[in-house]
Amino acid sequence: MNQRLVDISLRRGRLLERISVQRAQLAREIQPVRQALYTVDRAAAVVRSASDYLKGHPGQVAAVVGLLAIMKPRRLWRWARRGFLAWRTWRSVNAQMINFGLRSRG
After folding, report:
1. pTM
2. Cα(42)–Cα(48) distance, rounded to whole angstroms?
C-alpha cells in the first residue's frame, strides 16, 4: 500500500511538471493572438470614441460636410488620393520593417 502511494505521488508530480511546461508553451504561442486582439480592441475604442464625438457635436459635423460640399470636388478627390497613397505607403513600409525585425507588431 505504501509503494502504491509513492507511485501515485510520483505520477502526480510528473503530471504537474507536464502541465507547467504546457502552460508555458501555450503562453508563448498565444502571444501573437493576444497582440492582434489588443490591436483590434484599440481600433474599436477609437471608432467608439469618434462615434461618440460625432454624436455629441452635430454642428461641427454639419459644418465639415458643408465645407466639403462647397470645395471643388476635383480638389477633394485629389487630396483623397494623396491621403490614400500616403496611407498605403505607410502600411507597406511598416510591414517591411516588421518582416525585417526592425519593428515589433502592435
Report:
1. 0.43
2. 10
pLDDT at 106: 61
Task: Calculate mean pLDDT across residues 84-96.
Answer: 90
Query: Could you give the count of Cα atoms lying within 13 Å of 40 in the half-sphere of its Cβ?
Result: 6
* Number of neighbours of residue 35 by Cβ within 10 angstroms: 13
Residue with cell 475604442: 45
Amino acid at 2: N
Q: Quick check: helix, strand or coil at residue 1?
A: coil
| Grid cell of 76 as nine digits | 477633394
- What is the CB neighbour count within 10 angstroms for residue 103? 13
Angle (deg, nearest 10), helices 58-70 and 2-56 = 60
Q: What are the DSSP E strand ranges found in the chain?
A: none
